[in-house]
Amino acid sequence: MKILKELMLVHSVSGREKAVADKIEKMVTPYVDSVRRDAMGNLICFKKGTAEHPKKLMLAGHMDEIGFIVTSIDDKGYIHVSSIGGIHYVSAAFSSVRFENGVMGVIVPEADFGNNFSSDRFVIDIGAIGKKETEKKVHVGDFAATVSHVERLSGNFYSGRPFDDRIGCAIMVRAAMEAQDCKNDTYFVFTTQEEVGCRGSKTSAYAIMPDFSVAFDVTGSGDGPKSRPMAVRLGKGAAVKVKDSSVICDGGFVEYLMELAKKENIPAQLEILEGGGTDTCSMQTAGAGSRATAISVPTRYIHSNNETIHKGDYDACVALTVKLLEKDLGKAEF
Amino acid sequence: MTENFLNTLFSLSLTFGPTGCEKRVAERIEEELKGICRCTYDRMGNLICHLPGHGEKLMIAAGMDEMGFMITDIDDKGYIRVAPTGSADPACFLGKEFTVGNESTLTEGVGAGKVLHLVDRAGDSPTFDKLFIDVGAKTKEDAEKFAEKGDFAAYRGELFELPGDCVAGKALESRSGCAIVVEALKEAAKRDESERKDLYAVFTVKEKANMSGAVTAAYNLCPDNAILLGFTPSMNFDGDSANGRKRSVIPGEGVVLPLKDGSVLFYDSPFLTRAKEKAEELEIPFVLWDSPVSLSAGRAHLVKEGLPMIELSIPCYNPETPLAVVHKKDIDSALKLLTALM
Amino acid sequence: MQELKILEELRAIPTLTGFENRGKKEIARVLSPYFDDCREAGVAGLLFTKNCGEKDAKKILIDVHMDEIGWIVTDIEENGMLTVSPLGGMDPRTFTASRYTVHGTKDLTAVSLKKPFRLQSGAEAKKLPQAKDIVLFTGLKKEELRSFGVKVGTPVSMERRTGRMGDGQIFGAYMDDKSCAAAALAALEELRGKELSYDVCLLLSSQEESFGAGFATGVFDGAPDEILVVDVDLGFTPETEASKTVKMGEGPSVALSVQTDRRMTKELLRVAKERQIPVQAAMNVKSTGTNASGAPFLMGGIPTAVIGLPLKYMHTPVEMFYEEDLRNTGKLIAAYIEEHCGRKGESQR
Question: Engineering a disulfide at B333: which of B19, B154, B255, C219 sits with its beta carbon 3.0 to 4.6 angstroms away?
Fold first, then answer.
């Protein structure tokens, strides 16, 4: 959990992913052949494949998280914000938030908000007493996010934020570290701006034009209280994506990963996410297309302040990814 | 279930016989019972088959009609508008195949409506005035070769077997009752007159329009007891899949002996106790249940001085649709019990 | 009718949206005899090429999507009921009591179950069932289903019945868009023996009904100079607006839209008139609602036109069209290619 925790505690709202990118770069550099960043801020780490005719395999996990951007500061010193990404307003209301520069605040709904949860009915209170005082610390265009944290619940359950998607990044970092032999030309791409429309992965996928691609992200589960029916369960292993609301994954690749998991005794389950998209679609449709799927971590309460995961699933995702890296996909028949 | 019985069931179910146009079904039943019973029709069109016996006068009633529609209009292009004659589901029309016609001519058509891409409120169920049947006609005259205003339409489709001994197809919720009665009469006819009751099988018209012939037949025949054939919808899939499905009768678990239905209480009848004991004695699987469906035949229990009755009910998925599903075991159970009670 | 036979062969091959790979080999087997080359292209697509014989010839690409709408299994319940989620634009008016095929390792027949109408409350009865309100019933137990390879992600298709109706109308599921593949082949038959200066490609693209991954990637792979998207078009019936539909039995439609290339569109109409092929204009001003919507952004933009086969009751198991319209669609494609991609056409550019 050390790598994951370290990544989770960095501030990284969509469009402001540099701090996380720096941290990941430090972690990954010793294990790859080259590292670069592109115009969108994607961190692209490349490891040459050892196979005779290596195929291009792209892995993508997004570095950004949902948050807020300051739009104005009123006379009383309250900060008005616009949302970045799909904010879970029930959870966000009355949460602590932190600005990039470390300033703390509380995000509060206006008194008469009723059921109208939208960003323009929320303000951030940093304890200032007037516009001038506030402006000393926070400016229009600054970014804030609800405070990141992670705690262990009972057993192997952990709760905190943002698991979405620092856990995907952590899986890729660990896989890069743990893989003994990368058979394929592997691109570990830590993408930007996923939460606002999978933007970073579009440009990086076009640049790479992979043959195979795998996204790493969180997915929902069917075992929360009153959750919508879904076959995915926490603790049942890595979720291999069949479909979400932006992509239908390559059936052969899905089957291949499930078989691989079975052979290596890694718990895995099939996933259909009925609401939500991922970087998978960008990679599938880049250029002449690639055979794409995603490896996901089953998560309860996504986008809330207390996203909840099972450590066993996280480990299973890493194990499966490591095994995948060690397979020559050029020789795989599916 | 014997091959012959299954064939009877299939052939009866496939016969065109929407509410108000049951003649074809009645004729099929008459054919089946040729040389076995004396078949007559009453003034309403109900088919009454008498198999004389001794002692108790027992009336057995089964509805012949299937969920149907009446033609209300045929437009210049030959598109046909219909209205349901019973409680048909408007969500079960578009994309279904239909038979359109009357007692003498029939043709095929498909149920249609506004194309999905142009529907504004896609979540709302359409109403029948927005739906129509396309028989491939180009003009009104084309369509009128087969049917006219006041004629009928019914679901069309083949019957087929599913794994696990289930049968699926149209009209099964009512025609399986007819087939069971036909088969039971054939069995009873093999016995000596002294070993069976005085049997009156009534195949009724317009059951689904709540105008059961059982009522008029009960008035005319004055039976001692009556057995109705009906169906009980099975819904063990209803409710929230994440938080538990509802309890329900399940096809394959036995014939249902309803304690009551919407129009009649059976549980106070000594006849039900007798039927239950008989089923236990012969080890016929049965389920006691509250049937949520009101068979109009039930009203016959109030005819004249009252008529003790029970219902043999077949658990059924999707009743009154082109794909009703029943279980062969339940049909066998009902047949066995009915035969025993005769 | 050769094209109708091909249509039936194609319709018999399940190619559900996102699951085209399962049927690709079969599709290739049916269509390859009509082309010089067949290869995989883009995401789960197939690209067939008829060479004109010239080196580095230009390419005209006919796009027909091969994918079909249906269901995807989301879970198997303890009692063997399958819960499902739609693949593509399934019409909720068809969810009640329909017959489907579950494509496990073996094809299994299934029936959709819904709470009976007469037991629904007034409010329930006014709403159409959603995917969550139905289950699919096969009669098999959970373990049996598993042994037939049914699991989360197994695709399910509608019943593939077909029939004829009236004079010259054909109905059945999945005429969208396989009828247009048949029309494209009819066009190739017309072009047989004609001298062309273009290679003619047929792209059977994937995922038109879902996320559109097939067209852009397939075109990228094929790199054509012009594209003819051939797709079914909404046919006029009662309850639909004449202005938003095309007439049945009066020939293929040519889309007039900001998304299509004006020169190509005008030429299509002109060629049709000249050769007396019945044709009608489809006024899809802002969007054609077909794969062509993505064409202006492809590889720096590729001129694209849309030809439509008028079809009634789209996305139901009884999609219906006129044989004659299919034949004329083929003729129109052939006429355009002959005029503009033939030896004679070369000088006109």
Answer: B255
